[in-house]
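Hi L., both proteins are below.
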Amino acid sequence: MRFVISGGIAAAINILSRIAFSQFLPFSAAIVLAFLVGMTTAFILMKQFVFEESGNSTGNEYVRFGLVNLVALLQVWLVSIILARWLLPAINYNWHVDTTAHVVGVLSPVLTSYVAHKSFTFAGTAR
């Protein structure tokens, strides 16, 4: 449950920062920058509230967290772009298309991220 709450907070920050970045950047670039903001938020929350100490340095954990999140970023970016540019327009969905697509994209890697962070990033047990 702590993973879901921490991830939810980080996801909300990701989505809100993407909306802000979209005011002056293309959607595609805004997704990437917002992901970095959300990822850093998620790292801090996961380290504090979700996973036990791994015995690795914080820097090492952040690098590992970043590696796991490179895969998640690709997934978030692809899901968001495919939904916003092709799928939602194809079904005539036009209510906040970019935000809807981005929310679905951000939610898409929840399970794979948990498993990867538990077994690789923090290499400990969940609290």
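That was the first. Here is the second:
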Amino acid sequence: MTRLGDLERAVMDVLWDVVPGTSDGVTVREVADALDGRELAYTTVMTVLDRLAGKGMVQREREGRAWRYRPAASREAHIAQLMLDALDLGGSRDAALVRFARSVTGTEAEVLRAALGSEAGLTSTGTSSGGAELTDRVDGPTGRRVADEAAER
């Protein structure tokens, strides 16, 4: 997964916060306007969005002479992929996971237990017996569950 620079992250935050999943996306001008407090040229925002499209972080669709942009994956999917990538940096994945599990708060641990319980409850066809809402929120950039993408590595 691609790490983002400060400006790329700010643009992605605008897309994640402003563009609902069912939206047709936003234009460069709308993104530039949403980046309040930053004195950015239109062409700078256009270049950042073009590079994000090249990295697969955003999808774009032509509308007349302009492009409309929307995130390729949710913020949660991006963060989950960053976490998986961090596990691939070397050393023991198991040790890193144990250390991570010991560092989370009680509420975060409950969320992890619920997600793991949901995964354990999957049938052989990949459907859940009741926790689909947890796994549905953790899609990778390809649209598949992050756990499925990690298993393919």
